[in-house]
Amino acid sequence: MTTLLVIAKEPRPGRVKTRLTPPFTPEEAAALAEAALTDTLRTVAGTPVRRRVLVLDGTAGPWLPPGFDVVPQCAGGLDERLAAAFAGCDGPALLIGMDTPQVTPGLLTVDFDGYDACFGPADDGGFWALGLAEPDPELLRGVPMSTPATGAVQRDRLVAAGLRVRELPRLRDVDTAADAEAVAAVAPYGCFAAELARLARLRTAGRR
Question: d(Cα 136, Cα 83) in Å, to the nearest integer?
Fold first, then answer.
């Protein structure tokens, strides 16, 4: 595969993971977002691809490992931002977000032999991964984002374009506190699980 894209927001309080608040404070939610982003970028760094790109809303911080190109997100809705990310690719590309810190290099090592697209559904009705052998921004523009039907609409768009779609495993995004607990249980040795455990210890200590 030629390019791995990660679309993300700078983990700043009040701007990321707002559905974690409550029970977490905005600062705690941002710390969890940074941990999820750290895990995701480390996994991408360990995946064999020619180019790694962080499509970022904000400014890169110490959580960014070497070996990434950083490009700013364009203006507009999420569909436009995803479309623009693919528009910057000159060969096969796979795009993921920062909400699935349980990803592994194995999940991200995809090929397009016999397929034109890869699609990773998410438990909330969206999708955690989208790969295109020949990136076409028009395949994403106009898809309603952040709804329970987003994944189905996006997959239908691929099929309607005549693409052969490879289904990737279904994963759970981190949106709520329940999601955070479930994802940490799946990936107990990552930064995300460690940060969630640290916050739990602080809360327990504060109740004494």
Answer: 8
